[in-house]
Amino acid sequence: FQYLKRFERGRDLDRFRYKALSVEGSPAECVQLFLLHCGVVDPSWAELRNFTWFLNVQLRDCEASVFCNPDFVGDTLNGF
User: Which InterPro entries match (predicted)?
Assistant: First the structure.
């Protein structure tokens, strides 16, 4: 949700890192963003769960990868 919220506002995500235990927005806003970005017109709860699980895994791996670290790659992957 933290990434999607910043993405919706057009913020730079290259240097953002997930903030554990940080509460942002309301549950309704969270579900609304998931519905907007999951790619399914009328998703079931299972489809929303799978979307959030997949997105979480991808973002966690991205944060852990040295190749996605802006301090390591500089501006060679700006906006990637």
Answer: RNF213
Residues 48 and 36: beta-carbon distance below 8 Å: no
What are the pLDDT tens digits along the chain (80 aa)? 999 999 999 998 877 888 888 888 899 999 999 999 999 999 999 999 999 999 999 989 988 888 777 777 666 665 55
Q: Measuring CA to CA, which residue among 18, 13, 20, 15 is closest to residue 2?
A: 18
The amino acid that residue 23 corresponds to is V
Read off the pTM.
Answer: 0.75
For the chain, the domains span 1-73
